Amino acid sequence: MGDHTQIEPVELEVPVADQDHMKGAPDAPLTLVEYADYQCEGCIASFGAVEELLETHAGKVNVVFRPFPLVTHHPMAMPGALAAEAAGKQGRFWEMHERIFGADGEFTDEDLVRWAREIGLDMDRWEADRQSDALEKHIRKVRVDGSRTGVDATPTFFLDNWRIPVEPTHEHLAAYVDHFLSHIEGTADH
Fold it and tell me: What are the phi and psi torsion angles at 17 (to 5°)?
């Protein structure tokens, strides 16, 4: 990390909880929280960077994804979020998440249905869940909570509860993780 990069003094207001979708080692010393939109170009770019980070820093960082659909700019952002969250109700959030991001922002409702079948979801349950008012209210609440914390664009990342102004590349994410780890390891020695 260069001298021009600094941690923004913005703390994550809503802590990571059981209902969040987490990937990576649950006991990792760091958690990266990402607020993202399934059709945002930067979010699509960050998807691969986050996946690579989980490989290169296995056991040192886990990732929490929080939907932040920008519905006025991306018409399929909310349907994508609903599809992933509904898949999550059957324990298959990450499989749907990967399919949606793998489409590079170009997907239809028919694609979401096809992917739900391909990953083996109970289709009646998935359809009922993704059409439910409760699930849409949940996503809207996550978005409002993110806005309260200062999320005003996607992707927005918080590392160990602090907002990091990072480009959505593996290099930048890894630099922040390494920086935070050096402080954790440095304080553990004292």
Answer: -135, 175
